[in-house]
Amino acid sequence: MFIGTKAREEGFANKINRHLIANAYLGILSLEEIAANFNISPRTLQRRLKDEEVSFQQLTDNARQYLAVQALKQGGHAIKEIAWMLGYNELSAFSRAFKRWTGISPDAYRFQA
Fold first, then answer.
1. Between 17 and which of 2, 93, 94, 101 could a Cys-Cys bridge form, CB atoms 3.0 to 4.6 Å apart?
2. R_g (Cα) of the chain, nearest Å
3. What is the pTM of this model?
4. Counting runs of H as helices and runs of E as strands, what totals does the chain give?
């Protein structure tokens, strides 16, 4: 899970991160959808995350990374399917992101997992 640098009891960023992962079956939710779920404006959500020194983009990237790693470990899905489920329209974009996260390609990760 994500841990903000200014962790409160649980931390707002951790709540958002958990929500993104728990609702991943809906796709990666937008800033507006998350804000509505927490009954705050998108701008307030951004401010609260800024207080914890994290952006919404960092949280969505973290959720995608976690979900990609889990999907590759479990097997059962083609890499192209995983990319699509995580909101990537192009396999190459997913592969670049995965390599940025882990240092290796999705194929290599699946092979070693």
1. 2
2. 15
3. 0.80
4. 7, 0
DSSP 58-78: HHHHHHHHHHHHHHHHH--S-
* Spatial contact of 85 and 40, defined as CB atoms under 8 Å apart: no
In order along its 113 residues, the chain shows pLDDT tens digits of 444 444 445 799 999 999 999 988 777 889 999 999 999 999 999 999 999 999 999 999 999 999 999 999 998 899 999 999 898 999 999 999 999 999 999 999 988 86
Angle in degrees, CA 81, 86, 92, rounded to 5: 65
Distances (CA, A) of 43 to 2, 13, 49: 21, 15, 10
